[in-house]
Every structure is written in structure tokens, then in C-alpha cells.
Design brief:
- With about 300 residues, the protein is mostly beta strands.
- It is built from 6 helices and 16 strands.
- The protein folds into 2 domains: about 130 residues, Nucleic acid-binding proteins (OB fold (Dihydrolipoamide Acetyltransferase, E2P)), CATH 2.40.50; about 160 residues, OB fold (Dihydrolipoamide Acetyltransferase, E2P) (Beta Barrel).
- A hairpin with a 2-residue loop joins strand 3 and strand 4.
- The termini are far apart.
- The mean pLDDT is about 90.
- GO terms for molecular function: single-stranded DNA binding.
- This is RADX protein.
- It comes from Notiomystis cincta.
Amino acid sequence: SRLTNLGHLEMTWRSRQHFHPLLVRILHKSRLRYYGKPEKKVDMPYQAYFEVADGSGMMSMVLWNSLCPEWYHSMKVGTVLLLDKYAIKTSYPFKTHPTPGDSQMKRFATIEISLNVRDPPTEINIIPEEMVKPEWGLPEVKYRFITRSELDDLPNNHSCDVIGLVTFVGRAERARKREHSEDFWLYRWAHAIDGTSDQPFILELFATSQPDVFERIHPMTYLVCTQMRVIQGLTENPSRTVYLTTSNESQIFITGWHKGQPYTKDAKVKNFIQWTKSQSEADQIKKTVIGGYYPFPRPPDSFLKY
């Protein structure tokens, strides 16, 4: 009876200091960010943000510092939270935004929910899915799955989700975050097929905050990647160079991690599972490759074309 909602918060947040509890569902989750610097004395300089929603719309929620190691892995996409004693801040203008699965959902972009260990100390409760009631009006998690046959027609930077059977996974590689920087991004290339095209998905997978999954991607696993971005048309022959890269909000799942994930109800995921049942495992294993150097995009065949 004392709950508020995100729409009401946006209208009244300037005029109040204390807010009623919130009941929200997590729709998107970012990677964990470390912002430590030698001159700043913060015990646990971590930050992660989530997009949460109720019946009125969607808003960003930021998890700060020592709450990150305590809560980050428990807060999954689809998790329902009851929040109390949280703070409301003006939104950080430069952060990335995931593309919502439901394009009709209202977005409250001017403010964000801030969860801190003090000032005030936030109370976080995870509501088990079996206790979530339909009358609460919480939105379901929706996805934007595409098939490989649809990929070539999508515009550059389009956001999508994919599922496929891994046929190739490369070694982990590093790229400098900035020139002359000592910070590196860790990434690996993978190919996945879904039976709708002769071509595989070419996936550039940066290490997210899921090291246990990133290290265990191997051929013949069912791979789901969410919030991927299309990179289109690098050369004069764009059909050969379209690939997908992870975004700040990407989540990666492999065989063994799929159970209970919201995407298992998606129609395209079910179609993919039906296709895999018609395939011979022995035939597919013959086509798989692991490791080695993977230059991409591939250089032209001759120096003249180069």
C-alpha cells in the first residue's frame, strides 16, 4: 500500500527527501566498472548500472562501491527488487543506454535511482519469481532476437540479440583502450550458426563481467549474446564484413547457464532449439575450429586491391 512508482518519482522527486519503497524488475544490466584512481581514497571504487521498470516505465538504477561485490551477481536480468531508503539523483548525461526490447515502454531519462551503503543506507530485497504477483503490473523482459538470414539487411549500430551453435572460438586477445594507455580490453572472436544461412554470425566478444562464461566458450555450445551491436560495411563488399560486437549492456550465456533465463520463452530461441535437434552432432563437430590467429576484417587477396 505504501509503494510508489517510477512515474510518480519523476514528478515529485524535487519536493521530497524520503521516498516510498519501489517494486521493479531488472530489464538490462551493465558490466561492472572500476573507477579507482591512486589519488582517490575509495575502499571499493566499483559501479554498475541497471535499467529497471514497473508498470509506469523504465529508469536507470546505479549500484555503488561496496554494494557491487555484495549484490552485482545476484541482480540478474529478470530479477524483481523491492527497494527502500534509496536516493534519487540527476542522470549522468554521458552513459550508454541499452535498446529496450519493448519500444513502446516510456523511459524516464532525467533522473536515476542511486543505491549506496550509506547516505542513506539502501535496503535491497530480491523477490523470488514464484512470489511475484501479476497484479503488481511488472513488465516482462523482452528481447530482439534476429536470425543470421536477417543480419545482412540490418543497419550499422542496430541493437539485437542472437543465439547460435558455436563452430569457432578464437584465442583471447588484447587491445589498448587508448593509445599509449596501460589499460587493455580483452576480447575473442567466435562464429555461431543457426541454420537460417550458409554464413555464420561473426561475433567480437569483449570480456564482460562474466569471466566464468567468457573463458568457457567452446565449439558445440549453445551461445546466447544479448544487446549486441551490428557493425556493417567495412569494405566495398559489406556482405562479407558484417559482424556483431558486444555493448556495455551485453550478457553472454552458454550451455549450462541457460536454465531459468527469460529468453528461453522467446519464439526464435525455441525455433533454434528445434533446428539443433535435427542436426547430426558428429557432422557439426567436423566443421568446428578452436584457437589460432583470426585476422578480421580479412585483407584483400592481392596488393593491388589493398
